[in-house]
Amino acid sequence: MLDLSGVIETKKIKNTNETDYLNRVIETTKIKNAREPEFLQAVNEVLSTLKPFINQHPEFEETSLLERLVEPERVIIFRVPWIDDNGKVQVNKGYRIQFNSAIGPYKGGLRFHPSVNLSILKFLAFEQIFKNALTGLPIGGGKGGSDFDPKGKSDNEVMRFCQSFMTELQRHIGEDTDVPAGDIGVGAREIGYLFGQFKRIKNTYEAGVLTGKGTEYGGSLIRKEATGYGLIYFMREMLKVSGKELKDKTVIITGSGNVAIYACQKVQEYGANVIAMSDSNGCIYNRNGIDLSTIQQIKEVDRLRIKEYLKYHPNTEYMENQNGKTRIFEIKADIVLPCATQNEIDLEIAQRLVSNGVLAIGEGANMPTTIEATHYLLENNVLFAPAKAANAGGVATSALEMSQNSMRYYWTSEEVDKKLDAIVTNIFEACQNAAKEYGCDNNYVAGANIAGFMKISKAMMSQGIV
Ligand code: NDP
């Protein structure tokens, strides 16, 4: 049968009778990317906050700036064949989204998780453009990954997968082109295997081609901790404006991976009491506080389920997920830090959090709160730290790793941590100032989007129609 879907879509776009430039772009993006819900959610979330700024700049419409902004510069999709421990050939999909290079080489992590698809990676790459702009460092936006699941695989299987993935990816990356890093399912082990294969194929020690490397071979001190630490620095600044502090606050953290662990470490250092953490099976809860060293042993060393925590601390409660959903939000706390994955907090959960008297939410994960939930939380005066600003400490420290690689010189932990704190504090101020200037005081979601967009749009305007 003749495929008319393209013709129908074009017709629909022409029929979009939105007169407002912003809404027209949102509608057109919806039609062109109808099968990509997460990407549309991210575009909608960003563009809908830009109105006050866009209205002052007719040149954006004249140069179709928004249409260019929502279209990736390049999308690479490839086959990743590898052989499992039983000698069977497995095939996964590999992706790299090179979304926007207006302010620097594409930069963004790689995610290995069975849920990975084009929509999720495009949403992550799109968000990354704004986050990277907010850091004030010269990095563009990208993201990549695979539907490969490292969970339950042997080290050798993970290595063979990473080698096959890099055999293709190496054609597309470079320290001045595109610099991947870790994300869900990609930690120090995976980055090591990826770097080894890159070096082997290229026959060059291009340390700045990947970040999140081991400190023995070009990694930066504090990179591992940076996303979680940065989240808490942002939260500290946000509370300060309301005359509050982290000390003695109760905290729940979703996830128990890289971001969750180091957010927990830093918030505990500030004297807060972390009472619950989770993984994709369930959550642990102890009103007297969670012992982080046990979590690190279970997650970073043994790579086991969080339920194991009860073997070490039998007085802790374990709540298994119900109908695939975490029960962690049933627990009352002052501060909630979603640090696992996208869309963890929907409207129903937001309503529960508000009725439980939550004071502040800090997004460690990318887009962990739906748009409806975000609006509800803001309307109910919950202090809200949005991901692209609050978790930008990770990529900022990746950029510091790139700088150290270029200089062939390494800063101490204290030096990197100080720079990280300064960058995150600047980001907070940029969000605060943009929010104030465009009439949405204390709305750091709008502030972050506007501040990031101001920088990207200027760079794109300067570079002509590309
Ligand atoms: P990790 O793989 O180290 O940890 C992810 C954690 O989240 C694990 O506890 C995992 O549980 C849980 N999780 C993952 N997917 C799901 C799911 N679908 N449902 C429930 N739980 C889930 O990843 P990171 O800590 O690196 O990343 C966490 C979030 O932070 C992601 O949104 C990522 O994009 C974002 N982020 C990460 C940065 C970094 O530097 N690493 C930088 C900025 C943002 P389980 O082990 O059971 O799967």
Tally of DSSP helical segments: 19
The SS-based structural class is: alpha/beta
Enter the CATH topology name of the domain at 225-390. Answer: Rossmann fold
Percentage of residues in helical conformation: 40-55%
Number of strands: 12
Can you offer a commentary on this structure?
There is one protein chain. Strands 9-8-7-6-10-11-12 form a seven-stranded mixed sheet, sandwiched between helices. A five-stranded mixed sheet has the order 1-2-4-3-5. 47% of the residues lie in helices and 15% in strands. The chain starts with a helix and ends with a helix. The radius of gyration is 22 Å and the shape is globular. The chain has 466 residues and is α/β, with parallel strands linked by helices. It has 19 helices and twelve strands. Among the domains are: 74-207, Leucine Dehydrogenase, chain A, domain 1 (Rossmann fold, 3-Layer(aba) Sandwich), CATH 3.40.50; 225-390, Rossmann fold, CATH 3.40.50. Helix 2 (21-32) packs antiparallel against helix 3, helix 3 runs parallel beside helix 7 (118-134) and helix 18 crosses helix 19. Residues 115, 182-185, 187, 227, 255-260, 279-281, 339-341, 364-366, 391, 394 line the site of NADPH dihydro-nicotinamide-adenine-dinucleotide phosphate.
